[in-house]
Design brief:
The structure is a homodimer. By secondary structure, chain A is an alpha/beta fold. The first copy, chain A, is built from nine helices and nine strands. In chain A, α1 runs antiparallel to α4 and α2 packs across α3. The N and C termini of chain A lie far apart (51 Å). The relative contact order of chain A is 0.09. The mean pLDDT of chain A is 91. At the A-B interface, α1, α5 and α9 of A face α1, α5 and α9 of B.
Chain lengths: 210, 210
């Protein structure tokens, strides 16, 4: 099956299905109907069926979905059955927070290296991982089969660092810098723009019946 | 003008307009056409016109947009002309990272208090703000006109804490816990599900021509 045409909107919803199915699984629930899933996830049953049909369905008429099977399959679709090797660029507070967040590792996202331009941090460790100087980054990426780089650096340096990473073979960038990165088409960028998120909340809080 | 019907998709794009206009402004650029804005933002000029028309337009035929004016107006639409009082619940790494991120304060989002259930943290300070016990939270919210609570706590406690916050008058929740919060309709929730974002990146990195 060729599913390159699946919209990013559908893909954005997959981790949420994965999360809810994981919870059902933890509760020992073995099967679920799209209606039941609809009730707990607060999306329509028809949307659930449509979304999952993109990947071949998984459901059986009159039975619903097998929770464990669907959980595993969505995990595979999300690429979670394989390990990802990550580096993090920027050992500030946010970088430290991400390295210390154990859930990523449970899902197969393993932090292999941390890089920072601040000399005072070089040689220090975050959860057992040594902070290295930027000049060692390219070599490290090549030697350690790194596929994802997490950027927790100011926007002033993010563009240049992203270019460097792309040139040494990084395929995915998880970007927390407050800037849109322009990269070749075969490089995947996922942005977490925290300020944008907070501004959206602010908008929704403001009175708009002017 | 009544603009309650403006879609969340449009609203999601507003912070990005705000960011680009801020950069143009910093560069001393006074006016910009929708075509120029389109080129740097990589969205179509027609989308830009459509988005901004939701709020009354702002553009002038043959002139384009006045950068400073549009920046200010979008800022107002986003509610950034008013200060927001925030508390953060959860003084772990992520909570500390957010408190230390100065850009929020520049936009009028002021952290007034930090709360954590860990006794060892009580009385310690993060950027001059004292970490307080959870039992003081409700009183603090009422006494300090807090409108936004940031949840950087595990999902096991997030649901209960959110209910508590809603009951003492919080209007907005910026939720980093890996759970969907069920709150009354007049409470605004903006989620930052970091794991979901990372899984989406993982999906886009995986080969999908099975």
């Amino acid at each position: 099956m060729e599913d390159k045409e699946i919209s990013q909107a559908v893909i954005s919803r997959l981790p949420r299905y994965f999360r809810y199915l994981g919870e059902l699984k933890d509760e020992g629930i073995e099967r679920v109907s799209s209606q039941e899933l609809s009730d707990i996830m607060r999306v329509t049953a028809s949307q659930i069926r449509q979304d999952l049909n993109n990947f071949g369905g998984f459901g059986q008429q009159g039975y619903g979905y097998n929770v464990g099977y669907l959980y595993d399959e969505i995990g595979k679709i999300l690429g979670l059955h394989e390990e990802h090797n990550l580096i993090i660029v920027g050992a500030g507070h946010l970088g430290q927070a991400l390295v210390n967040y154990m859930n990523f590792e449970r899902r197969g996202f393993i932090f292999r290296g941390i890089f920072d331009s601040d000399e005072r941090l070089h040689g220090t460790q975050i959860r057992g991982i040594t902070v290295r100087p930027m000049r060692e980054m390219e070599r490290f990426v090549k030697d350690n089969d790194i596929d994802i780089a997490v950027l927790t650096i100011p926007k002033s340096s993010a563009v240049e660092v992203a270019e460097q990473l792309v040139s040494c073979g990084i395929k995915g960038l998880w970007n927390f810098a407050h800037v849109d990165l322009q990269v070749p088409d075969d490089i995947q960028v996922e942005n977490v723009h925290l300020s944008d998120s907070l501004m959206k909340l602010s908008y929704n809080l403001a009175p708009h019946d002017r």
